[in-house]
Amino acid sequence: VQLQASGGGLVQAGGSLTLSCAASRVSLENYVMSWFRQAPGKGREGVSCISSSGDRSYYSDSVKGRFTVSRDNAKNTVFLQIHSLEPEDTATYYCVADKNYYLLKALIDGVAPESMSPEHWGQGTLVTVSS
Q1: Cys-Cys link to 124, which of 74, 94, 104, 105 (CB 3.0-4.6 A)?
Q2: Rounded CA separation 90/128 (Å)
């Protein structure tokens, strides 16, 4: 599975951005998809996930109400719309694929065992928010 995130860039605080994640060599419709981010000098943080069919989604408290995850299985692509950007959102954003919705949800909540990790990680895209 090859995942490639795109759409990052430099944005002013309060602005919006849409990230995309495209896959090759696999159909994403078989996977739960998630977005993680890693801020400079910090660990990775799960921010959202969406079920394989798109009928369920979940967000971390830090982004709830500002981030929207969606997917287009026909285009084999997942999206993350980010609104009301804050400097604290500055991070490299990664798309992640796994078949276990509850694992991804637990990772977002920070309650999954440290030994557990999503199955597939993509290349990240950098989002920088200026104040």
Answers
A1: 94
A2: 5
Beta-strand pair 32-38/91-98: antiparallel
Contact between residue 15 and residue 127 where contact means Cβ atoms under 8 Å apart: no
Which strands make up the sheet holding 77-82, listed edge to edge? 2-6, 17-24, 77-82, 67-72
What is the distance between the alpha carbons of residues 22 and 79, in angstroms, rounded to a whole number? 9
H and E: helices and strands count for the chain: 1, 11
Per-residue tokens: 16: 């919006």
CA distance 30 to 26: 9
pLDDT tens by residue, 29-59: 999 999 999 999 999 999 999 999 999 999 9
